[in-house]
Design a protein that fits this description.
Shape: elongated
Number of strands: 0
Structural class: mainly alpha
Radius of gyration: 17 Å
Largest sheet: none
Helix content: over 70%
Order of helices and strands: HHHHH
Strand content: under 5%
Number of helices: 5
Distance between the termini: 13 Å
Length: 148
């Protein structure tokens, strides 16, 4: 029973994280890239409030659940669940070392004056964490299906 509950948490959570990242990559990001600086800074501030603290908490819960499944799942789940958790640690690392510092640097910017547009660099970091999340989702999906 515990394995089924944790598997559901892992699959649902990793799917949610990946889905949010894909939505940002294919819709939110391009829309923000089309905005002028002032619009972009305002939209970025408003959007950021919705993602924190949900995303870090969700990724941490899913990561820990995957590691717990390493102890109770049969192969290949005993290997794939922790592999997905390691990939999610990569998601967290990219977020904390790449995207979050860029996000923080925007809070003090004025709507005019000189600046280096952070959007291309932010998008590159975001694509990396989206790819890591998608790989984690694939590993979790295979692990859950193999247990059936």
């Amino acid at each position: 029973m515990l394995e089924e509950v944790l598997s559901g948490i892992v699959l649902t959570g990793t799917g949610t994280v990946t889905g949010i990242f894909v939505a940002v990559a294919v819709s939110v990001g391009p829309a923000m890239s089309a905005m002028g600086r002032a619009e972009y800074l305002r939209a970025h501030a408003l959007l950021g409030k919705g993602y924190h603290p949900l995303m870090p908490i969700l990724v941490n819960v899913v990561t820990l659940s995957g590691f717990a499944l390493a102890w109770i799942a049969e192969p290949p789940g005993s290997v794939l669940f922790p592999l997905a958790s390691v990939l999610l640690i990569g998601v967290q690392a990219v977020s904390h070392l790449g995207n979050v510092p860029i996000n923080r640097s925007l809070s003090g910017l004025a709507a005019d004056g000189p600046w280096v547009d952070p959007r291309p660099q932010w998008r590159a970091w975001h694509r990396l964490r989206t790819g890591l999340a998608a790989l984690a989702l694939a590993a979790d999906t295979v692990a859950v299906l193999a247990a059936r």
